[in-house]
Amino acid sequence: MKIFKKNQLAILVISLMLITAGYLNYSSTFNQKVEETGSDPVDVAKIGDAELVNSNIVEDENNIESNNQNENLNNNVAEQNTTNTSTQIENEKTDDGSNYFTTSKLERNVMYSQMIERYQSILESSSGYTEQKGIAQEEINKINDLQNAIMIAENLLTTKGFDQNVIFVNGDSISVIIGKKELSQDEIAQIQNIISRELNAEVDNIHISLK
Fold it and tell me: Bridge-partner residues for 177, per DSSP?
């Protein structure tokens, strides 16, 4: 009976020694890792988890940034398409007859400017007769007065709703071109009244055309 108890005691002592040795070995290894990393024991224990969490955060941030870039790209494309569409519509409006009226007025004004230059050269010529210079000056005055009258009449037509208009004068005959598909009798009378008053013209000499 005593021998059996001694054996039990010996086994218990050996077990305690093995457990103590294992614990001391684990503690020594763990402390060595702490000294090498310079981190707290809790931080060392969580290094693996922290790296995993940070990796997920970076991946999420990259996904968010990528989504934002795609959204900005789509917005830029949409804005560019809107701008191109607006530009195309604006060009269509510009080409829809308005070029004719702008070009016609420009060519008419250039013609009057060339006529004035020719008469002006007569005035500045030292060999010209006094009578010729007097006629040249009268013609310059007539052209200037006619240009002013045409400008006033066209501006009045614009204020009355005839935005696209141009006036040509050939002696007593006056041609008025309006950018509309049709005109009512009241609108025709309104145009005739403006032209007759500003250009001192007879109604029978006023010819209205549509463009």
Answer: 166, 209
CB atoms within 10 A of CB 119: 19
Share of the chain above pLDDT 90, in %: 48
In the block, residue with structure tokens 């560019």: 80
As a three-state string, the secondary structure of the chain is CHHHHHHHHHHHHHHHHHHHHHHHHHHHHHHHHHHHHCCCHHHHHCHHHHHHHHHHHHHHHHHHHHHHHHHHHHHHHHHHHHHHHHHHHHHHHHHCCHHHHHHHHHHHHHHHHHHHHHHHHHHHCCCCCHHHHHHHHHHHHHHHHHHHHHHHHHHHHHHCCCCCEEEEEECCEEEEEECCCCCCHHHHHHHHHHHHHHHCCCHHHEEEEEC
State the amino acid at position 157 in one-letter form. Answer: L
Please, are residues 183 and 208 in contact by the beta-carbon 8 Å criterion?
yes
Q: pTM higher than 0.90 for the full model?
A: no
65-99: pLDDT as tens digits? 555 555 554 555 445 544 443 334 344 344 456 79
Amino acid at site 131: E
- C-alpha span between 67 and 61 (Å, rounded): 10
Are 181 and 210 in contact by the 8 Å Cβ rule? The answer is yes
CA pair distance 150, 174, nearest whole angstrom: 10
Domains annotated on the chain, with CATH: 2-87 (no CATH), 97-210 (1.10.287.4300)
